[in-house]
Amino acid sequence: MNILIFGPNGSGKGTQGSLAKKKYDLDHIESGAIFRKHIGGGTELGKKAKEYIDRGELVPDDITIPMVLDVLKNTGPNGWLLDGFPRSIVQAQKLWEALQADGVKLNYVIEILLPREVAKNRIMGRRLCKNDNNHPNNIFIDAIKPSGEKCRVCGGELSSRADDQDEAAIDKRHDIYYDTKTGTLAASYYFKNLADTAGFKYIELDGEGSIDDIKNTLMAQLK
Ligand SMILES: [Zn+2]
What we know:
Rossmann fold, 9 helices, binds zinc ion, kinase, nucleotide-binding
């Protein structure tokens, strides 16, 4: 089973991806790992990519796509879940052409839908419990609202991650994701338009539901 997953930061994409990965024993491939494998491993493509990165430039798609394809073709027997790529419509077109040319079958494309303001609040509302990182607290999600200023599970002290409060960085990432003309949503819609004729299923999930609701809807549709 080969799956492509789209969703903005704050949509729970990582959580849902991990659940699907676990259930179907897939290789979870996120874009960072692709660069690490090639650049860390010193492959020809990795060396070329590094030259661009060292100059502070974006790595061209002509280098990135072959790296992605190489990683996808060297996964375990049960297939892969690709997360964080493609990010633009051009990358989507090139990835689709490359998959076709190499005879790699795509089975599902998942899109987690979430309004931009909600996604931003979810990130900025996250609170960490001093006693246990797994105690979920978010000041903007009713189901896991802290009790007063304290952890809703154990009453421990709460803090927030600096990354989660960096509004400019969140906006920048969301600018790319929510761009329906050339950005990541455009890439997602590119696959949505292909789905009927290209032989894979496009699954839309309502990101405003609870983790369990989203999970149940997803699992019911993956066969
Ligand atoms: Zn706690």
